[in-house]
Amino acid sequence: MPRRPRRVVCLPGTARRLVAEADGELVGVAGIVDAPQDWEIGAGFTPAPAARQLERLYLRPDQHGTGLAAAMFADVDDGRALYLWLIDGNARAQRFYRRLGFVDLDERHLAGSSWGGTPMHRMVRPAGG
Asked: What's the pLDDT tens digit per position in 84-125?
């Protein structure tokens, strides 16, 4: 069983956010928020396919394959229907989310300038995963 370093940093409103630390270093972050986000409304991606969005689940690369992502997701997930935006071409993450019950939607968008305008698409998971 992989080690599960983590701690809750805040639960404002209905948001759920976690960080994972190992040996005093940040190794992962996860967050679920109410949806849709303001940028989605502005871009016309409404209604959202679920009332909650996995806004982030990022690990330091040396943590890939350790089970930490699955552990963090399990800790932050409350079982309600959920969606996310996935950068196109991230096959590793796509396989991971499909194992969690997410399916690809035929909705595409270019990520903002901080992501270099990279194409992305939505995935959704029904309640109860």
From this structure: 999 999 999 999 999 999 999 999 999 888 878 899 999 999
Instruction: Report the CATH number of the 7-125 domain.
Output: 3.40.630.30
- Residue count (the chain): 129
Tell me, what amino acid is at 38? D
Q: Which residue has the tokens 């689940």?
A: 57
Tokens, residue 79: 């079982």
Give the span between the Cα atoms of 48 and 51, in whole angstroms: 7
Determine contact, residues 59/27, Cβ cutoff 8 Å: yes
H or E segment to which residue 99 belongs: helix 91-99
pTM for the model stands at 0.87
